[in-house]
TrEMBL record:
This is DUF3822 family protein. CDD domains: ASKHA_ATPase_BT3980-like (cd24013). Pfam families: DUF3822. The lineage of its organism: Bacteria, Pseudomonadati, Bacteroidota, Flavobacteriia, Flavobacteriales. InterPro entries: DUF3822 (IPR024213).
């Protein structure tokens, strides 16, 4: 484990310091920084970490931070990548029912949601009977394409929806994740999405507001629904008094997969931390 002002925080297995076959990197990047996980060729998770920026940054500045980290920070600078999954964290996306989706009109569908035509290629990722549309992170995609045999683009809304479906209840469930600068929300009826949204969040006091807003907009009866929380435990500790009153029933999401798929180095990471990069089935 290492933490400095420049490198952020990461947890890494000692095996990463030895010669390894090309690994699998999952990285989520946004204006507030990035987080990542590393898996070996067998799928075992060997590292997780991230760097948060003090102030929201442009996409160019965020790219610079990612490149600097993976080019200069040991042991990651010495690794080669078989596959890289790049996850875009922002609120510029849309989710449509699969029955309404037309691949030839994906740019138009995204433009309708964003109020303007995207200036880069549009990706479409299916999750169950829904399709998530978003613009590529071209800078990160081009950088990792020069270093990896295979690069896939994703959106955090797509990844979170897939994870929420894996934690769904038989009835109504509300899933809330606190990501750097954002609150992500998914409401499910069984495993069918009722709502998928990402809200900009500038303070812990807004988290409870969005939780109540999502429940109200979807006419969710808090006494009958399951509430599942993901992300920073510090946020939910600050909200514990409100959570004792509302909602009536909640739990924290757990890691997917068996304990044997995680390095002992990751025992330092709470099971509701790093929800996407540790649990995403990518």
């Amino acid at each position: 484990m290492k933490t400095t002002d420049t490198d952020g925080l990461y947890y890494a297995d000692k095996r990463l310091e030895e010669p390894l076959a090309p690994c699998h990197l999952v990285l989520e990047g946004g204006e507030a920084g990035f987080c990542f996980s590393v898996r070996d060729a067998s799928g075992a998770r060997l590292a997780a970490g991230g760097l948060e920026l003090a102030y929201p940054a442009s996409e160019v500045r965020s790219l610079e931070q990612v490149v600097r980290f993976f080019e200069t920070t040991a042991p990651f600078s010495g690794l080669s990548w078989e596959r890289v999954d790049v996850i875009r964290l922002d609120d510029r996306f849309t989710v449509v029912p699969r029955a309404f989706f037309d691949p030839e009109k994906k740019a138009d569908l995204l433009a309708f949601a964003l109020g303007g035509m995207p200036d880069r290629p549009v990706c479409a990722r299916q999750v169950g009977d829904a399709v998530c549309l978003f613009a590529e992170q071209t800078g990160l995609g081009e950088y990792f394409s020069s270093r990896a045999a295979w690069v896939e683009q994703h959106h955090s809304a797509e990844v979170f929806l897939a994870l929420a479906r894996s934690n769904a209840s038989q009835g109504r469930s509300v899933h809330l994740n606190v990501a750097p600068g954002f609150v992500q929300a998914v409401v499910l009826e069984a495993d069918d999405p009722v709502l998928v949204n990402v809200f900009r969040c500038r303070g812990v006091e807004q988290v409870m507001y969005y939780l109540l807003l999502v429940a109200e907009r979807t006419q969710t009866r808090e006494a009958e629904a399951d509430f599942v929380f993901y992300g920073s435990p510090q946020v939910f500790l600050q909200l514990r008094r409100q959570l004792e009153r509302y909602p009536g029933r909640y739990r924290f999401a757990r890691r997917l997969g068996g304990v044997e798929s995680y390095s002992p180095a990751l025992d330092f990471v709470a099971y509701y931390d790093w929800y996407n990069v540790l649990n995403a089935q990518l």
